[in-house]
Design a protein that fits this description.
The chain is an alpha+beta fold. About 25% of the residues lie in helices and about 25% in strands. The protein is built from five helices and eight strands, in the order H-H-E-E-H-H-E-E-E-E-E-H-E. Strands 1, 2, 3, 4, 5, 6, 7 and 8 form an eight-stranded mixed beta sheet that branches. The longest helix has 20 residues. It is globular. It binds ligand TSJ.
């Protein structure tokens, strides 16, 4: 019942998906570890969100027994709050919806750069395609989430640039030192 979590499966619900993901990066900015968030509307209809924060921890979560990043994307109501100490700053209800976005996405990929490594985990309709993998080295840190909203759930899968841009202007205005950018790559060639 998607509407229970995102309100609707119409245009508002679709835009809500982006905000649920972006809120996690904003939390990282509010904690003082991230100053740039880039959102890209991709040619294939998907959305990519990049931040330059610390990267979601990839080590085994002590309570759950799986990598923290997997908890974030697979557990209802688990967001960036698995370390309540680190997240005392933002509070509120931000960042609890990543698993909802995952379940409502035909595909979702999370890329994490931290501890010198590039890590990746992929999902389809919320199901992990495999364990998190180290796919290379990285000298930077950050988190990237790329997702394609499920066309079987969202009948109108088109994002409105201005709706997103206006929301990001407000978020950037309210978050000291945070830069947000929205790129529209739709219509750039074939998929
Ligand atoms: F970028 C993004 F929007 F796609 C996205 C960023 C999506 C999600 C679901 C999460 C994040 C995200 C989470 N960016 N940064 C973080 N940070 C953490 O999760 C984090 C990092 C380090 C530590 C630590 O204690 O070392 C703790 C946390 C919670």
């Amino acid at each position: 019942r998607p509407g229970m979590y995102i309100g609707s499966t119409g245009e508002r619900g679709l835009h809500h998906l982006v905000q649920e993901i972006v809120d996690n990066a904003v939390d990282e900015a509010m904690a003082g570890y991230c100053d740039t968030i880039l959102v890209t509307l991709q040619a294939d209809g998907g959305v990519r969100v990049d931040d330059n924060g610390r990267g979601i921890p990839v080590e085994i979560h002590p309570k759950e027994g799986v990598p923290a990043v997997q908890v974030v994307f697979s557990t209802l109501h688990a967001g960036g709050k698995f370390d309540s100490q680190a997240y005392a700053v933002s509070g509120g209800l931000h960042g609890v919806g990543s698993s909802v976005v995952n379940a409502l996405s035909e595909s979702l990929t999370v890329d994490v750069h931290r501890d010198g490594g590039a890590f990746q985990m992929r999902f389809e309709r919320g199901d992990a395609l495999g364990p998190i993998e180290r796919i290379g080295d990285a000298s930077d840190t950050g988190t990237t989430t790329t997702f394609l909203p499920d066309p079987e759930i969202f009948e109108e899968p088109d994002f409105d640039f201005e709706t997103l841009a206006q929301r990001f202007r407000e978020t950037a205005f309210l978050t000291k030192g945070l830069h947000m950018r929205l790129d529209d790559r739709r219509g750039e060639g074939r998929q």
